[in-house]
Amino acid sequence: DYVAMEIDVVMPVHRKNLEKGLIGGWVLSRLVMPYGSEMPYHATTVDFYDSWEQMDNDRNETWKEVHPDMDMTQMGEMFHSKRTLLKADVRRLVDYVNQSTVQMSDASRK
Known about the structure:
Elements lengths: L1 H18 L5 E6 L12 E6 L3 H4 L4 H7 L5 H11 L16 H11 L1
Antiparallel strand pairs: 1-2
Helix pairs in contact: 1-3
């Protein structure tokens, strides 16, 4: 299934790219609500980059390092058999809050 492919095949490549400083992060999420056969998608992935330059990096070499027995054509065929790409977006992070930023904020008030 698609999610298993992302975890087993794609995630190790993103881990290696993160170690090499080629990406800022990666997320795989599954849609919980709404749900049903009429939904156009059930999962999404997000690639994070720390700069526009990082986004332009050629990451194909990492695929070859992590999966030396698969050529890029095989990988492409596997992806197309497991998923339909509905759209791809490029977005710029404006701001965020998480537990770390809340704790930092609270500490700076003291």
